[in-house]
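Exercise 7b. Backbone tokens:
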């Protein structure tokens, strides 16, 4: 793919940002960790939402986790998650209109997610969203958010300047990662009650006209 290092792009987190997966992630973690993590509850889960499995497991289990055990638990959890993806999760209403609006304007879009590539590919296939994206980039094997690695890697793979990228996120961990990368950030407001200081802009959802939110943010990127 030919590209300029000053290319603008939009980097979408997936879970909780454009696909409503939070409850199903919680349920599959709870099933997987039963008897192994006595302190696991919804509050602890919410604290880690947005992190990759390796980072989450260290918090769920209260310390460093042997690689073999981390792999075993992650594999068990993700098998459960994928089995129910089509029935237990769904894209947020109106988000496909945002994808189309950006695509019509020739703006590259990438999925930049803590999920592994198998989950990303299955989600895009299940909900017929793959045609909107130029790239899927997984941070599952990188330093977990709030480290910026997933966004830096996705921007690099697109040939984009991360300082000219818009990161769309829903979690505090992800927004902190976007800020650390140097990107402009847009938060989908969630039950976490993201504060204005945590993102460049906040949207309550995708039912409104995408131009009302995105035009101003994209203009800011082009001025950068």
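Sequence design result:
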């Amino acid at each position: 793919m030919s590209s300029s290092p000053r290319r603008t792009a939009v980097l979408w987190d997936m879970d909780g940002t454009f696909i409503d997966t939070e409850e199903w992630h919680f349920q599959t973690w709870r099933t997987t960790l039963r008897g192994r993590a006595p302190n696991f509850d919804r509050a602890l889960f919410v604290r880690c939402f947005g992190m990759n499995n390796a980072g989450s497991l260290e918090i769920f289990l209260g310390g460093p986790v042997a690689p073999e055990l981390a792999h075993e638990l992650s594999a068990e959890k993700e098998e459960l998650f994928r089995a129910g993806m089509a029935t237990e999760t769904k894209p947020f209403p109106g988000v496909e209109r945002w994808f189309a609006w950006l695509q019509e304007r020739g703006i590259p879009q990438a999925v930049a997610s803590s999920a592994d590539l198998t989950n990303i590919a299955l989600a895009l296939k299940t909900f017929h969203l793959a045609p909107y994206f130029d790239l899927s980039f997984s941070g599952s094997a990188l330093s977990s958010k709030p480290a910026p690695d997933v966004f830096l890697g996705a921007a690099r793979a697109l040939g984009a300047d991360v300082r000219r990228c818009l990161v769309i996120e829903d979690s505090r961990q992800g927004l902190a990662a976007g800020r650390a990368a140097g990107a402009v950030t847009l938060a989908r407001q969630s039950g976490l009650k993201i504060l204005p200081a945590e993102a460049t802009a906040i949207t309550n959802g995708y039912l409104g006209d995408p131009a009302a939110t995105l035009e101003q943010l994209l203009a800011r990127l082009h001025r950068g």
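Instructor comment: The radius of gyration is 17 Å. The first strand starts at residue 7 and ends at 12.
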